[in-house]
Amino acid sequence: MSLPMGRAMREVFGETVAELADHDPRIVMLDGDLGSSTKADIFEHAHRDRFLQMGIAEQNMIGVAAGLATMGLMPFISTFVSFAVVRPLDQVRVLIAQTGLNVKLTAGYAGLFTGMAGKTHHIVDDISIMRAMPGMVTVSPADDVETAQVIRWAATYDGPVYVRIVRDATQRLFDDDYAFRFGQAVEVRGGGDLTLIGTGAQTPRLVDAAELLAADGIDAAVLHLPTLKPLDVAAIVAAAERTGRLVSVEEHTVIGGLGGAVAEVLAEHRPTPLRRIGLQDTYTVSAPNDVLLDLYGLSAARVADQVRAMQWPAS
Amino acid sequence: MTTTRGVGSAESAAIAQLSEMARRIRVEVIRTVNHAQVGHIGGPLSAADILAALYFRVLRIRPNESDWPDRDRFILSKGHSSLVQYAAMALRGYFPVDELRTFDALGSRLQGHPDMRLLPGIDMSTGSLGMGLSAGLGMALGARFAQRDVRAFVLLGDGECQEGQVWEAAFVAARYGLDNLIAIVDHNKLQQYGWPGNTSEIRLPPEEPGELVAKWGAFGWRVLETDGHDMPAVVASLEGAAERTGRPTVVVAHTVKGRGVSFMEGDYRWHSKPIKPEEFAAAMSELGEAEA
Fold it and tell me: How many H helices and E strands in chain B?
């Protein structure tokens, strides 16, 4: 019933960048002293001469990547989301987003799975921040299969890309024949009563939630948005037209993130009832992954509970 | 002996030409601020001799081929002094001197702070302080990867050295032994507003005397000090800084904010402000320009 587990995105990240570098001499990896956590160490083992340890100095690391990019190299930056987005935010803005340089911000430990590191390492608003930043592309793959494809795609894109990579193994959503398309949403399950909209590792949990709802006679579609910017406006509008009710679910604050983005689209293009599940303007605590998902209403069972309880205007 | 004297006189002529370029840079900075009635003055004037030495002597550049891969890179990390770079670039032939009058106007390539996406010849966009040295580090490292004989020169302000990122970069550059990375600190002893002294009129300098030299040295850099307005010394220190020693080098250039216009020198209030007509006339006169 439940989707199977896949491999950890972080391992696929390290392997995929290393494979790309076999054939692309432009690729270098910058590590902020977390290579053994982010699995940038896989790259180091394959390409020792192109692994650049930048130490615990993330503002500098962003600037070094910008300088390298001007010399024709393609830097992949690897650290935790906290230290890739929030700590060096002005460096990302001025040196990467405003310059449009070909730097890949491939940040690990996205969302709540941080080895129980707690609120300093749970960045709950990175989607809001990065999608608001002009010139920045934001991608949040659902599983290991999509992560590999997103990394490969990012290497073909000339410009800054922010990719959210999850630490621990998560459920596998896609088959090997899946093809990620930049800027396009994917309907991973059809349904007529409402549409659950997810991004990142939350989407597989929505497929499970839809199964639970189906047992109660609620026919839920699931729409996956791997690309948060640019947003697939047409797919969101089409889902609104088809089902008339939308529920966004994210391992992230509901303010300005996936739910905020969907609300913007609906308000302008097709006003439609929307409910937003996610972190409700709160910081988080240290706990095992499954405990966190239940606590913040993100596990399949808790999502299904919330959807069942929702009151909708008469259509 | 004759030969030596010949070389010496050729060199002194070259130095005189560089000093003249520094004077013209100062003139263009003042003219531009007067025209736009906006822009920084004190910092551009303190850096004018350094920029003249770089653009007309030290940097290996091709103004008509601004993306030449083997060019030296120059980053104005103290990006608010953009006018000194624009003036130097215009005089060096990157764009017409008249274009300086578009500074800060709508549609101009000459933004308030240097923008690499708009103006060919700008190697890195700057403006938010503390960031340039990191980018220069990346360029120096990139040159090493590409096995190109490229040096990266980065000009910082002394106030800017209060930014933590400068020291992150200083640490990492020393760690990589990047001897094709050269930092220059325009040590003009003033920042925009500064630290209060005994009265509110007295503003204390960004650092204690000797503090910058000690700090860069402690971070593993080779440190050269120079009078930033003595052209032979400026040239000698910049050329000496580019020698390959296995370590990055910093030139701490002792300068005077507002240098070249007596009533601007050493006065923090000339960091950035419009010029009145009588002030413009007096400044031009002091800089040896007949116009008013």
Answer: 8, 7
